[in-house]
Amino acid sequence: MKDVSFGQYYPVRSFVHRADPRLKILFLIAFITAIFIAKNFYGLAVCAFVLLLAILFSRVPFLKVLRAVRGVLFLVLFTAVLNLLFRTGEKTYWDGPAVYWSWKIFSVTQEGIVESLFLVVRLILLVVCSSLLTYTTTPVSLTDGIESLLTPLKWIRFPVHELALIMSIALRFIPILMDETERVKNAQMARGADFESGNPVRRVKAVVPILIPLLLSAFRRADELGDAMDARCYSGGKKRTKYKKLRLGWRDLIVFLVGAAMVTGVVLLRIYLGWPL
């Protein structure tokens, strides 16, 4: 769990770090939209190229960003295997048979291979871009950006500030809970607990001595945080002022133009090129 990177912040001065959090959130939304609009590998290649530029300008180590994929590797492989075994299409993309192997309801086809690869690339790009946002934006900046973007909802008395604060606290608690999990696991292993051997059922039962202390620790931290906010007379979003106000600059204009060009390019590739090659 110590390799889970989502929710962590990488402190360094870079072009991406200095960009407005609102534009970075909107860029992430545009990137996700472009990924799901993409109908072929050319569209995904455009998204991957833009993401690579963002990683280079963020000065976050490339391998550190890719580490985010490890947390969802099982999900990626599981969905890829399902698409590979249950796709029964007859399309061919290269010389060779359309169906390589078939047994009852399972089959391996050219279409299944291509769609599985397409899905894997799409999920990896999605996870890496989401992780890059948290690497380059502090929880406080994320809170301010989300609150600013959701400001129109205040007209219908929606608790925008409280929602943004909850999301920020949740992101901040992810690395804290990961560290707490590692400490509890090491303590249980020092007492003779075995988490590696045995069948899957036994391994699941072995997790119980970790979950119970972890839940108790999470509730205790939440209670302490609530007491600390009450002690400081926290009253939500009522007439609150900000020490740092968000202002758009030339970096944000570049981020907007890159995001708009990416979405436009993916849409054009979807219209004029077929699926998936």
* Assembly form of the protein: single chain
Count the DSSP helices. Answer: 11
The major beta sheet can be summarized as:
2 strands, antiparallel
The helix/strand series, from N terminus to C terminus, equals: HHHHHEEHHHHHH
Q: How would you describe the shape?
A: flat
Task: Provide keyphrases for this structure.
mainly alpha, 65% helix, 277 residues
Q: Could you outline the blueprint of secondary structure elements for this entry?
A:
Layout: H1 15-18, H2 21-37, H3 41-58, H4 62-66, H5 73-86, E1 99-103, E2 106-109, H6 110-136, H7 139-149, H8 160-190, H9 200-206, H10 208-231, H11 250-272
Antiparallel strand pairs: 1-2
Helix pairs in contact: 2-6, 2-7, 2-11, 3-6, 3-11, 5-6, 7-8, 8-10
Give a quick precis of the structure:
The protein has 277 residues and is mainly alpha-helical. The chain is 65% helix and 3% strand.
Protein architecture, described:
By secondary structure, this protein is mainly alpha-helical. The protein has a domain at 15-171 and 245-272. The chain is 65% helix and 3% strand. It has helices spanning 15-18, 21-37, 41-58, 62-66, 73-86, 110-136, 139-149, 160-190, 200-206, 208-231, 250-272; strands at residues 99-103, 106-109. It has a two-stranded antiparallel ribbon. It is flat.
